[in-house]
Amino acid sequence: SEVCDKLFRSAAEAGPNDILKLYNPRGSIINISPALEPNSPHSCYKLEVVAADCNSEPLGVELAGTLGFDLSAMEKRLRGLEKKIFFEASEAPAVVFEMKKQVDLFREKLESVEHLSWLGLFKDLSEGTPKPSPFYHKRTLHKTRKECEHVREKFLQMSSLEISEEVRQYLKTPTFDNWQWEDAEIMVLLQFMYTDLDFISTFNIEPEVLQQFLFEVYRRYNNIPFHNFKHCFCVTQMMYGLIWLTDLRTKMDTIDLLIMLTSAVCHDLDHKGYNNAYQINARTELALRYNDISPLENHHCAVAFEILEKPQNNIFRNLPADQYKRIREGIIKCILATDMTKHNEILNKFKSILPAFDFTNKDHKDVLMMILIKVSDISNEARPMEVAEPWLDCLLQEFYNQSDVEKLEGLPVTPFMDRDKVTKPSSQTGFIRFILLPLFIELANLFPCLEQHIIDPVRKALDYYTEMEKALEREKQNRAQSESVSKSKETAVSAQSTSDTKLK
Questions:
Q1: Model confidence over 273-332: pLDDT tens digits?
Q2: Domain span at residue 10?
Q3: Is position 227 annotated as part of the catalytic site?
Q4: Does 377 belong to an annotated binding site?
Q5: C-alpha distances in angstroms, 129 versus 172, 176, 187, 452?
Q6: Where are the compositionally biased (Polar residues) regions (predicted)?
Q7: Total domain count for the chain?
Q8: Is there a domain that residue 415 lies in?
Q9: Are residues 171 and 313 in the same domain?
Q10: Structure pTM?
Q11: 228, 268, 336, 441: which has the fewest C-beta neighbours closer than 10 Å?
Q12: 159: number of Cβ within 10 Å
């Protein structure tokens, strides 16, 4: 039994203290034991890591230990080999010359750049998109102090450097690829947005206070597959892009733009990966605290103002009380609008005022601000497929994690999160058709320029997932037919065998 357990842990890349769950081909949970019947390509078991030991060592150290590597010994050996190349070899290998050539080229590039730009110089925008890491179950939910300090140090080192013109323009477009950027670089880009929209000078925001605010925001986003710091950045970047694409700077007060950008930055603070339905059904502390009314969104708001309550983080600390009050009301209104249970109510209100929309009417502007953060929050499908699809994988991972926990705890299972019922295309086609497009189309009715920027890509995404859904359905039918033929043959062989036995 112990050997069996080790074998399954190895297959799942799980540590000795991780919790595994095994399903039989019918989807029922079963015990891991040597008595298990063999499976086949047509009747597979399903193995999952449901919960992990959060105190385990980082993945690299654990893997090295499992494989029997001594990392410090390997480093010494590598240094020894480097010395041998120069002291013992009669001729240095070609790779050394190639590396030296690369260093010289890099030095030449550095010396020819008038203003050193970290984000422009070191970032090759043509490089392939790295995929998000699937190893979230190997990380602690909250970021460790070491992890945070490392990112903070890098951010402060880069914070005063120039951003290239190419990146500045790219940052204003919905095609921006977040997967190419590290967390510290993302913080520099967020800082640039505040500067570029003139918030620093208009609202007397001290640069070191803005940096401390952004760091605290980074720290309070958790290590979960989807609602993490990179998602916060994507939503904020889309909001920033929409402000420029729709020329909102000439139509709305700067304070309203500040409210929208800061709301986007804070909109999912301290999300733990389980939605409001789970919070309410599981009677969590959040659901009890907020009386089942938008528990998550209320919590995100509370964490945002908890951060802003400290003077060293408070980017609004130099504003008069009436302006701060307006900002606080606006941020709360925007973040609460991201609760999808309010979707139809907000969209219908926007549709009703759209024929006579007036930018000088406060109620009209309030609804528009809520629509803009809603669009930004669910805008991944408006991005290029190579950027959007990894985000869908992350979202489904978070959904599956929740439905697994719901099954374990005997709670109602959220249908669109159930891994046994949902596929990638089926999760998207309905969402795009009934939620995304109606919302985006109404915003484009006010700003026709958005048709090409966000509606065309969403229509392409709908076509893509519709085709994928059809392909999966065809594959399912083919498999069913082949299984039917296989069973017919088995029945015929069995009947023939019985007949032969009787004749004997």
A1: 999 999 999 999 999 999 999 999 999 999 999 999 999 999 999 999 999 999 999 999
A2: 1-51
A3: yes
A4: yes
A5: 19, 11, 19, 23
A6: 479-504
A7: 2
A8: no
A9: yes
A10: 0.74
A11: 441
A12: 18
